[in-house]
Amino acid sequence: MLQILLNLNWIAIGLAFLVYFFLGYVWFTILFVKPYRISLGKENETPEPPAPIFIIGSGICTLFNLVTTAILFSVLQINQTTDALFWGSFIGIGYLSANTFNIAINPNIPRPILYGIISSAYHLVGMNVISWILIQSL
To answer: What distance in Å separates the CA atoms of residue 7 and residue 10, rounded to the nearest whole number?
Structure first.
């Protein structure tokens, strides 16, 4: 396992991290700010700057997603763009979207389907973008 980690392209992972993280900023604060606030039941509240944990925590989770994806690509010997996009979609839907909907379907999310659609679409797009970045670095 250590050898796999040492052989990863950390520059590509860093670039993919910046792109995925920036995509999250654009997705939730510009493109889908109103529907996202509605999904959380906060459409009538005055927006406040997010607490640092929401930014730092999101970044850490994104980094884990990226490193895990890079490890899977290495172990599965994914080296073609079409394969990377297939696996990006597979991971995006099979893990991230499924987990997002699982989190959404609790009493604290007033509109779980809307929340799930917005957040799942972000992860599906994000995973495919970072899969493309990772595969270009091979």
So the answer is: 9
Neighbours of 33 (CB within 10 A): 13
Query: How does pLDDT run across 77-107, given as a tens digit for each residue?
Result: 999 999 999 999 999 999 999 999 999 998 8
Backbone angles phi, psi at 105, to 5 degrees: -85, 65
CA–CA gap between residue 53 and residue 3 (Å, rounded):
32
Q: pTM for this structure?
A: 0.92
Q: What pLDDT does 138 receive?
A: 65
Within 10 A of 101 (CB to CB), how many other CB atoms are there?
16
What is the Cα–Cα distance from 35 to 110, expressed in whole angstroms?
12
Helices (H), 1-138: 2-7, 10-26, 33-39, 52-75, 81-91, 98-104, 112-136
Counting residues of the chain whose pLDDT is more than 90, the rounded percentage is 89
- Spatial neighbors of 29 by CB under 8 A, at least 6 apart, are none
Rounded-to-integer distance, Cα 37 and Cα 57, Å: 19
Stretches in the chain below the pLDDT threshold 50: none
